[in-house]
Design goal:
Strands 2-1-3-5-6-4 form a six-stranded mixed beta sheet, with helices on both faces. Strands 9-8-7-10-11-12 form a six-stranded parallel beta sheet, sandwiched between helices. The chain folds into two domains: 13-111 and 263-288, Leucine Dehydrogenase, chain A, domain 1 (Rossmann fold), CATH 3.40.50; 126-254, NAD(P)-binding Rossmann-like Domain (Rossmann fold, 3-Layer(aba) Sandwich). It starts with 12 loop residues before the first strand and ends with a helix. By secondary structure, the chain is of the alpha/beta class. It has ten helices and twelve strands. The structure holds nicotinamide-adenine-dinucleotide (NAD). The site of nicotinamide-adenine-dinucleotide has 26 residues, from helix 5 and helix 9.
């Protein structure tokens, strides 16, 4: 992490993140490294705010003219009630991870999906008109589902286990089917034949569940023989960096799109929205060892 050279003065601008628990977040390191590199007199700070303090925090940030902030759990859906404009992606996702304050007008959007699409595109992969298989129906999965559909992915086969996320999987898959040109099909993760068949027909598989993340790091939802060398394999999980799914894919020689790339690009997308400037992504990647 580079040391801050610019002194904090009366001109220093604040960008924030409101969530709880959130002290572990990588976002301050990401954005502050970028501000430092570009000589921008801004600072990114984290604030532990839960649902109870949310409305007051948003009104305070608005009243103080704070240019923008990120939002994470448990505030991603709840904050929508306090914003003025929602992007099409935020409306379809039913959640927000980035707020932009234009002179008191607050716009909410989601950069997880655009971040993932960017991580895919920077590897020279074009998913327009193609078919992908998506595992999950939570926050990360919904963001990918929505953005992939908005960006012209032709077909998405979505899988989730029959847990508390299943009704959400039904709702979001139906909504995206209705509102976009993407063909979306939903399957039970327990249906292994369907999983094998849909992966077999797809150019890319993405795990957007928390299976593979600590403490479920020994879990991989896909059998090795469901993978093939030509399949592109992505995992949104970045802790650990190298999930069992990514290990299996790399052992086969598959091209992979890791969770840390998505994490970096979701930050870069927000950075651009707040500052109008591209994040120096390669510098940040190197500084943070991403
Ligand atoms: P969430 O709680 O909203 O959703 C969890 C999803 O995982 C659900 O679909 C649930 O059914 C599924 N799931 C959990 N355990 C499972 C298991 N054992 N078997 C099958 N399915 C299981 O979580 P989220 O916010 O969507 O986060 C999911 C993962 O994505 C986490 O690891 C998170 O760190 C990661 N994430 C990464 C980025 C990034 O930028 N790379 C961004 C957001 C989230």
């Amino acid at each position: 992490m580079p040391e801050r050279k610019l002194p904090i003065t009366g001109h220093t601008e604040l960008i924030g993140l409101i969530a709880t628990p959130i002290r572990h977040s990588m976002s301050p390191a990401l954005h502050n490294a970028a501000f430092e590199k570009l000589g921008m007199d801004k600072v990114y700070l984290v604030f532990e705010v839960g649902k109870e303090g949310l409305e007051a925090a948003v009104q305070g940030l608005r009243a103080m003219g704070v240019r923008g902030w990120n939002v994470s759990m448990p505030n991603k859906a709840a904050i929508m009630a306090y914003l003025d404009i929602l992007s099409p992606a935020a409306q379809l996702c039913g959640s927000v991870n980035t707020v932009i304050n234009d002179g008191g007008v607050l716009t909410g959007t989601v950069t997880d999906g655009t971040g993932w699409m960017h991580a895919v595109a920077e590897r020279g992969i074009d998913l327009k008109g193609k078919k992908i298989t998506l595992l999950g129906a939570g926050g990360a999965a919904t963001a990918i589902l929505v953005q992939a559909a908005l960006d012209g992915v032709g077909e998405i086969s979505m899988f989730n286990r029959q847990d508390e996320f299943w009704p959400r999987a039904e709702e979001k898959s139906a909504l995206v089917r209705e509102k976009t040109n993407c063909k979306v099909s939903l399957f039970h993760l327990e249906d292994r034949d369907a999983l094998r068949r849909e992966i077999g027909d797809s150019v890319l598989l993405v795990n957007a569940t928390s299976a593979g993340m600590k403490p479920q790091e020994n879990l991989c939802l896909v059998d090795s023989d469901m993978l093939r060398r030509e399949l592109i394999v992505s995992d949104v999980v970045y802790n650990p960096r190298q999930t069992i799914l990514l290990q299996r894919a790399e052992a086969l020689g598959c091209q992979t799109v890791p969770g840390l790339s998505m994490m970096l690009w979701q930050g870069a997308e927000a950075f651009k929205l707040w500052t109008g400037v591209d994040m120096p992504v390669e510098y940040v990647r190197k500084q943070l060892g991403l």
